[in-house]
Amino acid sequence: MDMIKMFDQQRIKSVCKHEAGHYLVAKLLGFKTHGISIKVHFPIGHEGGSTIEPSLPGITNIDLLKSHLRKRIQILYAGVISEAFHNENTYDSDYALKEWRTGGGRDDYSKIRELTHILRNISFPSSSNTDEMQSQLTKIDDELINLTGETVSTNLRLISSICDLLLKKVAHYDEHFELSEGEILELPSMRNLFPKETTS
Questions:
Q1: Angle in degrees, 0-180, between the axes of helices 62-84 and 93-102, rounded to the nearest 10
Q2: Which of 33, 38, 78, 141 is the most core-located residue (most Cβ within 10 A)?
Q3: Phi (first) and psi of residue 148, to 5 degrees
Q4: For the whole model, what pTM was predicted?
């Protein structure tokens, strides 16, 4: 297997930060997490993911469904938003838009669009006017992207720490690497945020 080439390091770091963002926002929103996996291809491409599942025993009513959809959309947004933050106060919106349209966030964005339409439909079931529906979609989208941005910005140092742990593991192309839940929970900031998990 080829060693990772130096000119790919920054892109791979972005991928690791993307996955760390998904992971941490999912955990903060109450989803069960099971670590992060990544595989980098040459020419540059990747497979990655954070295995998550809702902590709810079941979605038994509309309010629980709406809450689940709102959280799931934020988790999907968190990957690219994490990449687009250079620090807590510097966010590259042009980069984020490019990633969602043509880059590594395209799959996330297609899921976001579908889930946002479902959320709008169940939140405003009597709406039928096209302009009104678009306004509702935009309002939901703006609210959730802003909430995600606030969560990521507040926790950017921890996201970067998780990213760095994952990045250290990626030594070769076309090989699967995993960062376990236990390894992530060893970080001091994770211990502070999730003391019950780290002591169990």
A1: 110
A2: 78
A3: -65, -45
A4: 0.91
